[in-house]
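User: I'm new to structure prediction. If I give you an amino acid sequence, what do you actually give back? Let's try with this one:
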Amino acid sequence: MSKDTAMGASTRREFVASAAGAAIAVPLAAASWNAASAAEISGDELPLITNGLEHLGIVVADVTRSATFYCGVFGHGLFREIDPPLRYYVMTGKAYIAIGSREGVAPKLDHYCVTVEGYNREKMDAAIKALGYRALPRGVALDPDGIGLQLLEDPAGLTDTNIPADRILGRGYGLVQPYGMDNVVLRVSDMDRARAFYDKFFAKADARADGEVWYEAADTVIRVAPQAAGQAPAFERYGIRVGPCDFAKVKDGIEKLGGAVEGVDGDRLYFTDPDNLKVELVKV
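Assistant: Good question. You get back a string of structure tokens that encode the predicted 3D arrangement of the chain. For your 284 residues, that looks like this:
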């Protein structure tokens, strides 16, 4: 795990497993969880009882081109929807990237998802609306800038409509071995409004970048940062944990696949995909 995301445990499961009994913040009379308290979960607890970032969704210009690119980077763990429209899922260790397209919508990082223990969508939607925020279908809550946070019951993963896809790269392996999600970076228009929203959902973590507020979702991180003047708020970048690798070789491989490397900073490599969406690789 990178030093930037070595956060304390924030889920009931991690609390039970921890001999130290790490503290978590939940809106129950008891200040900590144990196995017997599982029945007390009502499914609308805020802050969330979360096991971390689980997947993200991206909108692209060409679904097959993007799936080919991401398989080239992360390997051949590829699934697709049984029925049209074509939608691919590229596995990144214990997480995945959902790749789709929408007519008239420019490429973008669309939403990110965390899993929630005991999640009850109907109750949670009501709790979110009672706070004055928007709750959309499929468990999506919109922050004040319209950035989508999806909630799914733990464990989540792929569904029965997702089937293994044919290999689209032929022979070879991915450039890196992915281990799961590390972080997301959200650029917001108003930090006070954003903090008011994210404080409801997550516990704060120690921010390691000036001007940002960081939140922990189990051992993953949501980074909230101010957007530059004149720029629209956006889900700006996501980070994936990867195993030991030679970043020089990874850089060459990404460029051959049609991406562009923006830079390397120690154990972190930053690149853009063929649709100019921003990605970070974090060695662990």
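You can read the tokens as a compact description of the fold. Here is one thing that stands out. The CA atoms of residues 59 and 105 lie 8 Å apart.
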